Hints:
This protein has helices at 4-17, 34-42, 103-122, 139-145, 192-196, 214-219, 230-233, 242-245, 258-261, 270-276, 279-282, 287-294, 304-316, 324-330, 336-347; strands at 22-27, 74-81, 128-131, 150-151, 157-158, 166-173. The protein has 15 helices and 6 strands.
Amino acid sequence: MVDPSEIKAMIVRLANESGFVRVGIAPADTPAGGERFGRFLALDYHGQMSWLAKEPQRRCDVRSLLGEPDDGVCVICLAASYAPSGDDAGAGHIARYARGRDYHRVLGKRCRKIVAELSDAVGGNFRARICVDTAPILERELAAAAGLGWIGRNGCLIDAKFGSYLLLAEIVVNLSLPVDGPVKNRCGSCRACLEACPSGAIQDDGMVDSRRCVSYLTIEHRQSIPESLRRPCGQRVFGCDICQEVCPYNRDVPAGDAEIRGPDFGELSRAAALASATPAEIIRWEWSDWDRATRGSSARRAKYEMFLRNAAIALGNAPDPADRSALERLARHESPIVAEAATWAIKQMI
């Protein structure tokens, strides 16, 4: 039997070699955020994300993912950085995390490599479950329990060195390993994110009302965006980084993983083209343009019609007569949400 401390040291080494900037071990029992998550659901803050409300108790105890009734389970928590570097052109239209390769695939591949080497080292009946937004778990609470950072007022996991431009992954394993402890919440009295949120989605207690969040509205909300929330969307077509941009812990952070954050914007590539695409260009996209721009990207989460809807709203927030004919064409689109958004945008020009 390999010593648990040696296994943990091996995990840390493998994580660092794989490009993760933070790694820690969390216990598999109920995270401290269970009660908070219950309040989030009770307030209906999850909006149309109905999957969050399915079997909420399972999210609070990951042992069920391996079918293990005992305590011989823990969670390897990992974080990769996608912090911007250098020329950050295109900021505001496409969220930073979606500008490179689809992080689900990138981090999943890295986790599989770690699991393969762990399996060789441990042997026996070793089992593991990789989670990259693919399982019902409270990933930020687990990451905080593992000492990867603290959950900030904006709901993001924040690390003192790497800020909040972090993507999380977890590997649930049937091993008893030394666990790590949480770090101190260092947000203090800072309210920068709360005050900068254009739609007032961030509440005084740090809870985020998804129904008002620009990221939710542009990515997860499948119907027409309420008119009262269109102005806050500004020029954003996919996601929103405002609450992170104003966070003091995101100043002067090390550049993130190039594979995830995307190439420098001077490079000609699919990722650079998506990141720099303007709303005026996007409303002129055919399906094939959307397909080419989002292929292999997590931006594909928002369907073609949603990109058109969001771009039309962005143009309504910054009317330009040069876009009128394109908007008039969209006003006749077969998708009701596209046609309605384009009609609204045209009215803003009057």
